């Protein structure tokens, strides 16, 4: 397949790394934030093992950035998110939630603070650029909202640190978990953060000049050869093992943070004003009616991630749905995230899953399924 052979029209954008991903074996793509994202470099189980044993390089340009600048940027960013940002330092990142006026989740981006009044929201799959611009128009804040020429790569896996040291030198290991630095590589302007959507040690490398995408990809792949670096795609297996959300699957505009167990990201106690605060106060007072849980499904290994929501039943009553499911070759179990009624969300509860024409038993277990304390991603790098 070549660039000329692929596409559904100019309304879906290609990333600066598109040609390189095709040359390196990408054969399947999906659409995310109105862009193509590589989803197939061969066997997804092998991609999983490449990630947890060595390292993979992923084109995640679809994580579009909403850039917020101006004298009131800090106040405006706080208006958008339920998390208290009063202690967010320049050079720090935070996982945040963006809710609407009813407390429904619109996005769960990573927020990067590049300077005093300079922020990026690194997005999941929804149009927060339009939301932020609309909010800004109806506010008194002096801010500028735009989408910059920024396209991230993810270099993820235990050997990512070795590759980064080869590219940037020993100083790179000083980046703490959820912090960033400004850098460059062979004249290519970059932001580097110790973040990623993999539940593994890794980095996101934000390209700040789209004309240099293929050069950056090839440079990283060349440096990674001796460390068995492979081209890859975000691993559904590993992200479900880590209990990481996929927007539109595990959460949407009708899902609130408390249902997802993300209470720690909702600050209702201080004077901060954010969109959805009053609604979330009421939801917390009245209590939730459903909750996300981790489950093990008792059946033969699933052949791939679910492509539809599977109904959940208890005593012949529909109590929820499976939102993300996959077979974990490491755990040798079918693992899944499900949204179920609150009275059925307790550990060791059993119920039935309807998978097309078949009914399978499932049990609620602790999540994340692997590394619940995030020791892999947050460890201090002394190598």
Q: How would you describe this protein?
A:
It is a single chain. The strands form five sheets. A six-stranded mixed sheet has the order 12-13-14-11-3-15, sandwiched between helices. A six-stranded antiparallel barrel has the order 16-19-18-17-20-21. It is globular, with a radius of gyration of 21 Å. The chain has three domains: 3-64 and 149-239, Gyrase A, domain 2; 65-146, Aminomethyltransferase beta-barrel domains (Alpha-Beta Plaits), CATH 3.30.70.1400; 290-383, Elongation Factor Tu (Ef-tu), domain 3, CATH 2.40.30.110. The protein is built from nine helices and 21 strands. It is 20% helix and 31% strand.
Structure characteristics:
383 residues; alpha+beta; Gyrase A, domain 2; Alpha-Beta Plaits; Elongation Factor Tu (Ef-tu), domain 3; 6-stranded mixed sheet; 6-stranded antiparallel beta barrel; 21 strands
Task: Give a topology summary.
Blueprint: H1 18-23, E1 28-32, E2 35-40, H2 44-53, E3 55-59, E4 65-69, H3 73-80, E5 93-95, E6 98-99, E7 105-107, E8 110-115, E9 118-122, H4 128-137, E10 144-146, E11 151-156, H5 160-168, E12 180-185, E13 188-193, E14 202-207, H6 213-224, E15 229-232, H7 236-241, H8 277-286, E16 290-298, E17 310-314, E18 317-328, E19 333-341, E20 350-355, E21 358-365, H9 375-378
Parallel strand pairs: 3-15
Antiparallel strand pairs: 1-2, 3-11, 4-9, 4-10, 5-8, 6-7, 8-9, 11-14, 12-13, 13-14, 16-19, 16-21, 17-18, 17-20, 18-19, 20-21
């Amino acid at each position: 397949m070549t660039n000329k052979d692929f596409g559904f029209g100019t309304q879906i954008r290609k990333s600066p790394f598109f040609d390189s991903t095709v040359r390196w074996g990408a054969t399947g793509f999906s659409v995310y934030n109105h862009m193509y994202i590589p989803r197939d470099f061969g066997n997804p189980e092998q991609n999983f093992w490449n990630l947890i044993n060595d390292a993979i390089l992923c084109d995640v340009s679809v994580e579009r950035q909403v850039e917020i600048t101006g004298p009131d940027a800090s106040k405006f960013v706080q208006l958008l998110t339920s998390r208290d940002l009063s202690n967010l330092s320049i050079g720090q990142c935070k996982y945040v939630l963006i809710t609407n006026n009813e407390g429904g989740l619109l996005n769960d981006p990573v927020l990067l603070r590049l300077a005093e009044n300079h922020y990026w929201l690194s997005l999941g799959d929804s149009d927060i650029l339009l939301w932020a611009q609309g909010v800004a128009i109806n506010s008194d804040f002096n801010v500028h909202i735009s989408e910059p020429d920024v396209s991230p790569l993810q270099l993820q896996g235990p050997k990512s640190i070795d590759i980064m040291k080869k590219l940037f030198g020993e100083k790179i290991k000083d980046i703490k978990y959820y912090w960033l630095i400004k850098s460059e590589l062979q004249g290519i302007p970059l932001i580097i953060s110790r973040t990623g959507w993999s539940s593994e040690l890794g980095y996101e490398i934000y390209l700040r000049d789209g004309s240099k995408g293929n050069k950056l990809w090839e440079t990283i792949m060349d440096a990674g050869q001796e460390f068995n670096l492979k081209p890859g795609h975000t691993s559904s297996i590993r992200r479900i093992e880590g209990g990481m959300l996929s927007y539109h699957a595990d959460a949407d505009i009708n899902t609130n943070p408390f249902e997802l167990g993300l209470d720690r990201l909702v600050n209702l106690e201080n004077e901060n004003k954010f969109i959805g605060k009053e609604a979330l106060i009421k939801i917390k007072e009245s209590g939730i009616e459903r909750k996300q849980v981790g489950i093990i499904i008792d059946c033969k290994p699933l052949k791939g991630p679910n492509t539809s929501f599977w109904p959940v039943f208890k005593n012949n009553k529909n109590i929820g749905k499976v939102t993300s499911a996959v077979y974990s070759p490491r755990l040798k179990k079918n693992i899944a995230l499900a949204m179920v009624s609150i009275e059925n969300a307790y550990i060791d509860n059993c119920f039935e899953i309807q998978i097309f024409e078949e009914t399978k038993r499932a049990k609620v277990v602790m999540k994340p399924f692997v590394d619940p304390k995030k020791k892999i991603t947050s460890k201090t790098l002394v190598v």
